[in-house]
Amino acid sequence: MIDLELIVPDGWVQIPAGTDHDGERARIIDGLVRRHLPAGTDETGPWPRALRREITAAVDEASRHQARSVLLPIGDFDGVRLPGSLVIAVVEDVEEGTAPEQLFASVLAGAGPDGTYLEIGGSQAIRVSSVTTAGPAERRTPARQVRYHIAHPRVPGAYGLVTFTAISDGDVEAEPVQAAVLMFDAIIGTLRWEEETAPAAPVVQEAPEAPVEILAEKPTEVILATAPPAPARRSLLRHPVTLGVVLALAIMSGTGGLVARHAASAAEPEEGNRASTADVRILVGAASVCPALTAPRLAGQIMVASNFGGQPVAAMRDGGATGVAALTPAQWQENIPWDGAQITDRKASVTALAHHMCRLFGQARMVDLDDDPWRVALAAHRLGMEPVLAAGGVPGEADDYVRTVERYANWYALQPGFTGHAASPVPTAAPTPGDTVVPVPEAYVTAIAAAGKTCPDMPPARIAAQIMATSGFDPDKLGEAGEQGIAQFPPTVWARNVKAAPGRSPWDPDVAIPALGRTMCRMIKNNGGYGAALAAFTRGDREASVTGLTVRVSEAQTTYAKDLRLQPVRQPAPKPSASASPSASPSPSPTAARPQPTAPARTNQPAVKAAGSSGSAYGPYFVLNFGTGMCVDVPGYAAGPVDGPVHQFPCAKTGEDNQEWTFEPRAADAEGYQLYWIRNADDRYCIDPPGTGSVDPGTSLNETNCFDADNQHFRLEPRLTSGGFAYYWLRNTASGLCLDVPGSADAGPATRLALSPCQSNDDHEWALVQKSEW
């Protein structure tokens, strides 16, 4: 039997799942609710009863997914109330063709910039971050989810799945949510594999109860403990616990309820040498190696090591240290960042230091020391971990080094160009209009075209125009207020809107350009228009005057709208003729509308009814809507992210896109209808309603990994024929609802698809068209 071991902080509550623990589960939930009741609240009142029901329902949902236990962080972590849940699974019996290497590659391809390779405990792993949005149909709170897939280092085919879901009060980029994810990334560094001959009961050391304070009258507010957390204790968490269950802590973190505090460093800032634009870029990129690092922290170390010179200062040359980061030969050999790297190369040296410090930070998290893990890591870098452990913290001989690095780091955090939690300096005035609109460099055309597909308010021409007006397409530009790279992201805007991950940097155009599209779309929605969003992006204030910049962008957009390279070959699908249009002709007759027991006349169509439950996939097809003339689409032009939205967009009849779908037979229902997965040909994800069962009308659709024991089966019900194409209702069998474009055949591009009650004279009819048929 294979198990995962993690170290979690005190203050986590374990609620057993499964029918064998009904009594114990009820006792734990009742005690949890009682401890957190505001003074004077009736224990039998309506909201305590509702709270018990909600937590019980969440655990019951986990039980239906074969979970053994649910863990919720009820105590504090470094002074932060953690709004989330932790779930774990171990897969030992892997089906043929789904070995971890292939699975990881598939998941990573679908994750795009939100996924990355890394190593955990000596094993190959990937990290994927995603956001689940809220809506009335989904009845869930916005959350950020981080999933780790970790291959077993010794058992072929086995791998672990560890998921942390951080609940928000509406803003998934809020500081408490980011702090919760940072905590989880630190916990995952403690992962160890264990192989046992017999299962042992899960053991979680409960922290002693601490006095609590209810922060507001609303019963959904976060509960903040007054006592500091005790040192971490070892908890053995065992499988099977499934992924993706958003758990009951959401109940305790309602609107306005996310509160966090961070201990401020006692070290006063000490002015360091100014870092060049090239060095700032290196530091920001290297700091993305792990969440524990920041560019100011690395800058503080480089300042102490070499004053940003080429070689170490005299006090840092012991052990044969060399290079800008003052690494010893052993440290360099253990952390060489790429083949052929030389320690004299500034980027290689700083990146190696970043890898080294991430490893030490992970070790510092694991040891039972009453000191800040970053300080422990700094001391271990200077002396080694053994002297630090022997001293029970930062030894006296390393104290001066640690404090000096901290002081420099605090100063660099205040300087333009360094990302982090410190506020950036007030930006200077926006650029003034110029006379020349330079052509979009060929190297950036693909990224700009893809970014311009994020939302209708930021088409490719506007993306290109904003980049031209702010950076002139210069990927190395460092603005006067610290704006970075080709998209000129202010540091605080980048930190607030782009999730940190290894290799993700505003200096990388392939990362920054898509991030600009997503960020501006979000800001336009939040600020009520492009002008206000541009002011919020560049000046940090939606009310700021950016008239000159707005005019410059508008001028450039007019020019770039004529650039055919930014306009994929997308022609709206031909509307049905007047005699066949929904508005001009009566609805299909009962005879025409009745589902047919055989496949349509076109031989390339999937079977409507079939005796078998499996077979070869049909397609791929464009899925064309009769009413809107648009096709089922995934945002962007390549593989979409797991759990990403599915919407409609003008059909890319001749261009390259991600609009083709296969229909894969999976089962037959009681009426003889063939049931299908609708699977994207690029990312191999299936159209999926939230959850695993029936959903309410109006529920928005995503795409995710394909499962039979889910609600992903659709059947085809022929409705009408127009222009030589047969049109179907695509009915979801779990809910009985049909694939729908919200509205009445008048929805525009990028409208997210949903499930609605099936009805004629709407936009529920879809044709399956192969590319050769356009």
UniProtKB/TrEMBL annotation:
Extract the ranges annotated as region (Disordered).
Answer: 562-610
Q: Which UniProt keywords apply?
A: Lectin
- Residue ranges with Low complexity bias: 570-603
The GO molecular function terms of this record are: carbohydrate binding
All copies of domain Ricin B lectin, residue ranges: 620-769
Please give one Pfam family short name. Answer: RicinB_lectin_2
Which InterPro entries is this protein grouped with?
Answer: Lysozyme-like_dom_sf (IPR023346), Ricin_B-like_lectins (IPR035992), Ricin_B_lectin (IPR000772)
User: By what name is this protein known?
Assistant: Ricin-type beta-trefoil lectin domain-containing protein
